[in-house]
């Protein structure tokens, strides 16, 4: 404290000394102007102006070059370095408090959770786009098969392509289920870390996490609607295929010129319709089949336990 007061007093003394020098120069300059006006020497006036500039520059050497906004005191350049070092020391000490460390840790946790959420959302949207593309291919092939019901060879070739496309679509749909499960845990992680950040005093990170979570959910909901529209189109196309196949079978039964060949074709069409129905059931009831397989495994495990007890 005393050192600071002494420094301020020294600066005030230098300011006073510089002011006195400037006032003496100003008085001399006024006297010289009066003498030049009387004698009419314009050249001497210009020379005096130059000397005034030099004297002011010399007086400015005794005054500081800059002023701090917060204090309003003029400081020397060497004193400026000391004032910059003290706040740094204070910041380092305050950064080691429990409150500051908790804010930093909660902010880092929120950033990690948001990164996991962002990566999961991007992967989900990417796989959903691929799934819709594959599902659109299945719909197109199913429509071609419907149009080629009266051409067995072309129908069989398209049906093989349709089965392969369905397998690929099923694989993508299973990957989407896994990503949706991961997305559920990622959203839960973000919500928990955001709450921890809010409790520790990091309100900004908590608010940002909440906004990003809502934005991700809205984006995923919009993407799910696109998938639902395509799945409805697939169901409609499959229904049209079954109806068209049934009409071909009925027409073959009514016609009188079909003979044995028509009966064979009828059997083939019936088999195709049965296969398509079974594929459709496996497509829309995959979850139920998984549950049934899990229940059968549980029953086998229980039977094994009873056998060991015996």
Automatic annotation (TrEMBL):
<dbReference type="InterPro" id="IPR009062">
    <property type="entry name" value="Smac/DIABLO-like_sf"/>
</dbReference>
<dbReference type="GO" id="GO:0008631">
    <property type="term" value="P:intrinsic apoptotic signaling pathway in response to oxidative stress"/>
</dbReference>
<dbReference type="GO" id="GO:0005739">
    <property type="term" value="C:mitochondrion"/>
</dbReference>
<keyword id="KW-0053">Apoptosis</keyword>
<feature type="compositionally biased region" description="Acidic residues">
    <location>
        <begin position="257"/>
        <end position="266"/>
    </location>
</feature>
<dbReference type="Pfam" id="PF09057">
    <property type="entry name" value="Smac_DIABLO"/>
</dbReference>
<comment type="similarity">
    <text>Belongs to the Smac/DIABLO protein family.</text>
</comment>
<keyword id="KW-0496">Mitochondrion</keyword>
<dbReference type="GO" id="GO:0051402">
    <property type="term" value="P:neuron apoptotic process"/>
</dbReference>
<feature type="compositionally biased region" description="Basic and acidic residues">
    <location>
        <begin position="277"/>
        <end position="287"/>
    </location>
</feature>
<keyword id="KW-0809">Transit peptide</keyword>
<dbReference type="InterPro" id="IPR015142">
    <property type="entry name" value="Smac_DIABLO"/>
</dbReference>
<protein>
    <recommendedName>
        <fullName>Direct IAP-binding protein with low pI</fullName>
    </recommendedName>
</protein>
<feature type="region of interest" description="Disordered">
    <location>
        <begin position="255"/>
        <end position="310"/>
    </location>
</feature>
